[in-house]
Structures are given as structure tokens and as C-alpha cells.
Amino acid sequence: MPDAVKTDKILLEVNNIEVIYNHVILVLKGVSLNVPKGGITALLGGNGAGKTTTLKAISNLLKSERGEVTKGSITYRGKGVQHLVPSDLVKKGVVQVMEGRHCFEHLTVEENLLTGAYTRRAGRGDIDADLEMVYTYFPRLKERRKSQAGYTSGGEQQMVAIGRALMSRPETILLDEPSMGLAPQLVEEIFNIVKDLNEKEGATFLLAEQNTNAALRFANYGYILESGRVVMDGPADELRKNPDVKEFYLGMSEEGRKSFREVRSYRRRKRWLS
Amino acid sequence: MPDQLIFGMEVFLNGLMAGVLYALVALGFVLIFKASGIFNFAQGVMALFAALTLVGIMEGEVPFSHLINAVFGTDVHNFGWTVPALLAILLTMAVMVLLAWLVNKLIFRHLVNQEPIILFMATIGLAYFLEGFGDMMWGSNIKKMDVGLPQGINDWIDAATFDIFGYGFFIDNLDIVATVVAALLVVALIIFAQYTKQGRAMRAVADDHQAALSVGISLSFIWVMVWSLAGFVALVAGIMWGTKSGVQFSLSLIALKALPVLMLGGFTSIPGAIVGGLIIGVGEKLFEFTIGPMVGGATENWFAYVLALIFLVFRPQGLFGEKIIERV
I need a labelling partner for A101 at 20 to 30 A (CA). Which of A112, A162, A173, A236 fits? Predict the structure, then answer.
């Protein structure tokens, strides 16, 4: 375990978990990772590597998709959380922002945000204050607060999804693929807000992302998943300099940017062993 | 004024009143469909079950008396007391909440993420089981229900219309009560859905189960809540129909009248259920009155369905159904 992580307080610990869907499909084959308090930890990898499954295993959303954790353990603040229902986890401060935005289409933007505070016992005043807080991070949402979420743009829906999660006053946010289907400029905007939330509100992030380049610029630490296994991990800037990561995920090699055709095939086929 | 027109007006008013009752049943369908995507075929039987239970409690009948007598060789039928209507209604409501909880615990919790057709089949099964269960619990004889609602011709309307048209309209007091109750119920449900935390959560669940789970909304709680609400609506419908025509097993068939109402009003709209109910109620009565005699009558059985089919062709989401949001 690298020093950077050891010195910080570990909030979330995933220990060698295996996930099986429908009793037969083995999706995660022993994933371990640590999320330190106050950091942005990136979970990288291509399609089907198991990023989303890992997040859902943590937030316990797997069950409704007929998946289950069959081995290993997940602890939050040192306590096992595998047997909690999602609403208990939200109360403990772990909330997931799902991939593909998942807004409540027929609810207005503001109603969407308010559902985020569902598990809280706070009074109207506190909730209004938090609503304002979300609007200061996402001024666009304030303009569109009365529109049905289904009619807002993709970027706005992603903001609604993140803002909604914030309304539960989370300690840890599991953010799944926020860049999906968004223009590069918007991706930048969203990541900047994530960084801001991390620094100013002290929110801890576990960020699953295919956009390795963007994710590694904003994260402190990264894990790379490949077919259900962690194949590499390290501090974000080290990963960015790693020649294999550069070539496989950033499309660069020692000789500079290459076209896909020129990438040496034996290197593309190479697999890291965990 | 020509007689035909005056009769027509009376028919129109009576159609409105009948429509209110259709709407009450449709309302229960809408609630469950909106929150869980389940088309609850058992809604009509729930109204029957609620009415049976209410009468049973009021009369102080012993539930499952046949079963008890058969097993223990006893001969009990009645506790020998009667329960005041209001208290009996509260107790019946408690039974409906328990039913809602059991239905979710035993059936729908295990069918999460299944195809809609499977959920629909499950509700058909539930409908027939519940009908038999109600029979077993309270016996199958036709019961008279009297919770103290006014019944019979409304003299004031009779007199007033007689003064104006020289012909007194026959409007049943019970229908007027039903209309007022239905109106209050709808207003209350809309306020609940739009402005309360649980109502908002209910709509959220309707939109996206997974996302609702992810923000910490408990699906099973919302479903039990919605089935309880539907149980409450069923109870109200059961009281109105039961008072009007007695508590009997044909009561469960009103579910079939609610179906065209839903197609007309939209499966997801509370106001739609009401407007749809009124249109069907008025439409079938007026159709029977005007066209009926030419085609030999009995049009009430099929008119609603024809109207519904026309709607399906030209406006599949119904009058007030949620627009399917499609972004380009």
C-alpha cells in the first residue's frame, strides 16, 4: 500500500470482492480498493471492466439487478455494510450518482433535488439552505428549477443527479461516469465542480470513469480495472506518467500521439497480471 | 321545452353520477400503476373485499366462521355486538393496510424487475384469490350495507326542477354524496402527490426505481403506502357501490368498467381518472338514451369499450396521460 493512502484515514474499504449476476455470471473477480477521507479516488477501465458493478456493490444497488457479492467484504468507517439496504447507506453518508444520469423525468429540477433529502429528518429551513448551496455550485439549475427534468439538457441532467446526491449531505459520493455523453467542455465544467465540492465541502469521491485523461487530472489516486480485476493502482500523477497507461488509456506512447492503426498489436494484447 | 331534451338532461346528470363511481375505481388503478407500473387487476376485488369486511365488522360477524365451526365443531356466527360505522371504517382501513403489506411482502417483493405481463398475471391471481378469501372470511351471501349515508330521491332537486321544467328530476342523494366524497378524495390525493415528501417520493419511484433507490427511498415502503392508498380508495368505492346495490360478488366486476375509463383518462393521471369516469358515465347513458332504442338497447355493455378503442387509436396516452418525454 503506497504511503499517500496509508497516512490518510480510510473511509471505505473494499476487500477482495467477487460479484456474480444471476448466480452464473462472474463480473468481479476479487477487487480491493481503499477510499481515503477527503480524496478523489478514480476507478478507471474500459467498457465492462466492472467499474459500475463495483460502485453498485458498495451502494447495495446490486440486489435489484439480481447481482450479489459472493466473496470478500466491504466496510465503511470500519463497519461491514454489505447487508444494509441502500437507504441505510444513504443515512450513513454514502450516496451513489448513477451512470446515465437517471433523473426523475416528470419531476421538476427542484423536486428532483428535494428527493435527495428524502432520508433526512431536517426542517424546511435546513433543506432550503442546502438547496441554495446546490444552486451556488450549479447556477444553471437555479434558472431551470421549474422545468421538468426530462426536458433539460444532458449536462443539466448530470448536474441534477449530482445536486440531488448532495442534498442528502453525504460524506462519500460514488460518482459513476459523469462524463458519459457530454461535450468535452461540459465534462471539464462538471469535473471542476467535483473538485470544488471536494475542496470546499470536504466531500470524498469515488469516481468511476472511462475518460482516463480527465479523471486522472482531478483525482488523487487511481485504480485501473480490467475484466473484473484491479490490474494497477497508484497516485494519479504517477499513473499519468506510466508508459502502459499512456499507451492503453491515454492513446499516447513514447513517440507521441499515435493513430490507432499504428499501435503495436502485441502491446495491445498484453494483459497486466494482478 | 321539449320533453326529450328534459329527459336528456336528467340522463346526463345521472350519467355524471354513475361516472363518479367509475372514476373512484379507476383512481385506485391509477395510484398503483403510477407508482409501480403494475396494472392491478385486483382493484375491483379490493373494493368488494373492503365492503365485505366493513359490513362484517359492523354486524359483528365472526370472520372465518365456517372454517372455525368446521374445525372445532363449534357453532359461532356472530359476536353479538354491532360496531358504529365510523369505527368500523377505521378498522376496515387497518385491514386494508395489512392487506397492502402482505401483498407486497408475499408477492411483489419477489417480482421486482420482472416483466409487466408477469406482474399483471400476479394481480389476476391475487384478484381471484382475494375473492375466494373474502368469501371464506365473511360468507358468500348478499349483504346490505348501511353506514348512514343518505339515500333516495333528493327532494330539493326534484322540487326545484319541477318548478322550472314542470318535471322533477330524479337524483339520488347517495350519488350526490359520492360526488362530493370523490371530489374531496381527488383534491386530497393531488395535494398529497404534489406537495408532500412522501408524495414526491411516490412520483420519483414511478419515474425511475433505480434512481429512487439510490437516493435512499425505500421501494417497499412506498409500495405498501401506495397499495394502502389504493385500498382506501377501494374502501370508499366499496361503500358507495355497496350502499347503492348491496355487497355482492358482482361488485368486483366494476373493475372492468374502470378499464375504458383508464384508457380515456390516461393510466397515470389522477384528474384523468375523474374526467374519464365522467365522460364514460355520461357517454354511455346518453348513448343508450339516444341511439339505444334504434339498435335494440343494451349499449351500455359495450359503448365504453368502443370509446376507449377510438382513444387508443388516436391518443394512446389518454386525455391526461403523462407525455412520454423524448429528447432529440
Answer: A236
